[in-house]
Design a protein that fits this description.
347 residues; mainly beta; four-stranded antiparallel beta sheet; five-stranded mixed beta sheet; disordered N terminus; Tachylectin-2, Chain A; 23 strands; 5% helix; binds (2R,3S,4R,5S)-2-(hydroxymethyl)piperidine-3,4,5-triol
């Protein structure tokens, strides 16, 4: 009963957004079409890059970096974190900006800083939605990689910026990261450490706001592993990731382990096929780089791999590739689909 009430709350919220939104232009889509422009329900391109999806009370929330049209990565296209909501993972409603990088009064969140790869996790104890993103301060390029932390009592904000931290027990912090919540509610920060590019793990405090203590190197994860995305399936942890080549695509890589600290076993590139939109195949991950793996609610063993096709000169035009994951033993397999929907998991 409690679950039904909670679900109704989320769905009600979406109905309010529909009614107050520009319904005249509403578009309904029936399928996910990887590599093609993905519009929200009002017909605007979805602007949520390097993102993640959180399910809460009957709705999916997609958080990603808002890229400012007309700017490049070097002219600071990052505008903050944008959120969309959906019931079906195909049709998305714009819920607005969760945090903006346009605050001259806050040195951490000015227009000239660079931010990336937002991830939101719900803390069931504090009842906070905790938002993390990669943050390079104004004028510092990528010398020190901070993790910025913001919290909100609601999935759609307002998010309050709390602080930033340097992870990895390194004065230069970390780069790409995943925030993985284990079955017992413990949250772990898994990231590539600067400057040595070892892949490390540190447990977060129970309130999720800061690392609790020391980080350790994840044995078996190849150094220079970026773009990590993790799930737990049965008693195994599975990780999808990329190599390190800036904004340029490279071959995806995958690992499995019985413990988050390792040892991890690598099993190479889990993707196959080719992206007809750009002619790129598995050796370049269809032109994409992983961001997150989302679990489909109420479906057993149904997971979706989220990739971005980065366009550093025109980040506003960066694309999305979402593909279903299939499993052979403890290995993930992700093959190209031109168009698909959730019925693919019925097979
Ligand atoms: C690689 C990361 O995976 C991207 O998200 C981005 O931060 C680029 N590096 C920047 O060079």
């Amino acid at each position: 009963m409690a679950k039904r009430t909670a679900r109704n709350t989320g769905v009600l919220l979406l109905m309010v957004v529909c009614i107050s939104g520009t319904q005249a232009a509403a578009q309904h889509q029936d399928a996910i079409t990887p590599g093609q422009v993905w519009n929200d329900v009002t017909g605007n391109p979805i602007n949520a890059h390097g993102g993640c999806v959180l399910f809460y009370q009957g709705l999916y929330y997609w958080y990603g970096e808002h890229k400012i049209e007309g700017l490049s990565e070097t002219t600071h296209a990052d505008g903050g974190v944008h959120c969309y909501a959906s019931q079906d993972l195909v049709n998305w409603h714009d819920m607005g900006m969760m945090i903006r990088l346009d605050r001259p009064e806050n040195e951490d969140l000015t227009h000239e800083c660079n931010s990336d790869r937002p991830k939101v996790v719900y803390n069931a104890t504090t009842r906070d939605f905790v938002l993390f993103f990669k943050l390079y301060l104004r004028g510092m390029k990528s010398q020190a990689g901070f993790v910025a932390v913001a919290t909100s009592a609601s999935p759609t904000g307002p998010f309050v910026y709390r602080h930033k931290f340097l992870g990895g027990n390194s004065p230069e912090g970390t780069g790409d990261f995943a925030m993985f919540k284990d079955d017992d509610g413990s949250l772990y920060h898994l990231a590539v450490r600067k400057p040595d590019k070892a892949f490390v793990i540190g447990k977060m405090r129970d309130d999720y706001l800061l690392p609790e203590g020391e980080y350790t190197v994840c044995e078996g994860v190849t150094p220079k592993t970026e773009a990590p995305a993790l799930i737990k399936r049965g008693d195994e942890y599975l990780m999808l990731a990329s190599g390190s080549s800036g904004w340029k695509p490279n071959a995806a890589r995958a690992f499995s382990a019985k413990s988050l600290q390792g040892p991890w076993t690598g099993y190479g590139n889990p993707v196959s096929g080719a992206n007809p939109n750009n002619g790129l195949g598995a050796d370049l991950t269809f032109g994409g780089q992983s961001n997150f793996i989302l679990g489909v609610e109420d479906r057993e063993d149904a997971y979706i791999a989220m990739f971005d096709v980065n366009k550093p000169e025109h980040p506003f035009e960066s694309g999305y590739i979402w593909l279903p994951i299939f499993f052979k033993g403890s290995e993930m397999h992700i093959s190209w689909q031109d168009s698909w929907d959730l019925r693919i998991f019925n097979k």
